[in-house]
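Response to reviewer comment R2.3. The reviewers asked that we include at least one raw input/output pair. We reproduce the pair for GH3 auxin-responsive promoter here without editing.
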Amino acid sequence: MALIDISLPQSIAKALRLPARSPKRQQIRVLKKLLKKARFTEFGQTYRFDELLLSKHAGKKFQQHVPVYDYSKIYAQWWHKTLEGKPDVCWPGKIKFFALSSGTSEAASKYIPITNDLMRGNKIVMIKQLLSLRTYHDISVRSIGKGWLMLGGSTDLQKGPTYYAGDLSGITAKKVPFWFSPFYKPGKKIARTKDWDLKIEAIVENAPNWDIGFVVGVPAWIQMCMEKIIERYNLKTIHDIWPNLAFFVHGGVSFEPYKKGFEKLVGKPLTYIETYLASEGFVAYQDRQYAKGMRLSLNDHIFFEFIPFNDENFDAEGNVVENPETLMIHEVEEGKDYAILLSTAAGAWRYLIGDTVRFVDTERCEIIITGRTKHFLSLVGEHLSVDNMNKAVKLVSDELNIHIPEYTVAGVPHGLFFAHQWYVACDDQVDAEVLRHKIDCKLKELNDDYAVERGSALKDVFLTILPESRFMEFMHSKGKVGGQHKFPRVMKGKMLDDWKAFVQ
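Raw output as returned:
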């Protein structure tokens, strides 16, 4: 808390013509900064960024002049030139690093441009989040100065003709500033290891030598690593070896399915900190304990737009229509789902990132991730989101006192109609029919459209229980281990065919 509160009432600030720190003003300032930096690029010249900068309504003009892009469209028209080494395409200079990203369902890798400007912006947001830890009143202060175990991709990147490519976490670890090196674990040598199993083995081997205060990574892989350490050294909990462990920084997937499993591995409560760090940029972070959601990074290196996630803007496969309705930060509403568009300091312009979010607090600009534009089920109009599924699984898990760390759902034909097929990871004793019935009932309570269609064209729900190890083995078989890889909550297309063959 500040020693002297110098904030002024809004009316006085307005009378004195002091700049208001409104989300809209912050975002327009970011947009103009991006437009100014990229105005001499091919993209900037094509869409007349100079003219947009002179407009009194830069945001609306930008929306009118620049089309919406998904990955396929922006790669075909622009980004492929940067892979060929051409400079000044969508962002000034040559692109020397690309994050390889396949999401959770796509087969082919996507090459997402990474620039120094983007990395600098990411670091600024990371520092802001660290500073926000002072609002976590019950934290262990000693833990902040301890080691940070960051479980990510290899820093030994693939070398292209004019660039390096790899997992974003690997690129980030490779660029760790010198002052952070003493805190950074597992260290640069282990971080270069490409083989995931060898990397985990090296971490387990070195675990007694480290004093860890933070663990950072995707919940499933962090949990697996901690389980191996506990097993190797015959420990009761992870705190027997890392007594100062106080924080778990996670993101990219709902933590609720994993929480019960984590609590079995620790000897004292952890502070869970959620982040939204995508390959395209550091989107949002939790800046206070027990917050409803994560605060968007509005004043840094990303300009946000939001497309209402409905049938008018997306087709049945989750593809965005031509000229969708797009809103700026001051136009969104609480309780509605939106797909995010990003314009970033790496040459992504009005780029559909593929995630859907919901505003839980518009005043604080706090969001939760509700799913993916292509990870929802609406075979017959049931409009079932990943958020609905996560809530149903959590409610049923708590009711039955079981642990369900992973699951996936597919829409399947059923006679002349349709059904949902659930595959659930659970190592506890539970009756599959009871679990199926309870999840179905919870979804009817959570989603009115689902309830209606369950009495109509969505004729049945099937459920198969599998060991958690089967889900991890499948990810191994697809080469999707560690780093930012998450198990898809909805299966479609070739991934579904591969999964069915694997399970059978």
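The longest strand covers residues 351-361. The chain has a mean pLDDT of 86. Further pairs are available on request from the corresponding author.
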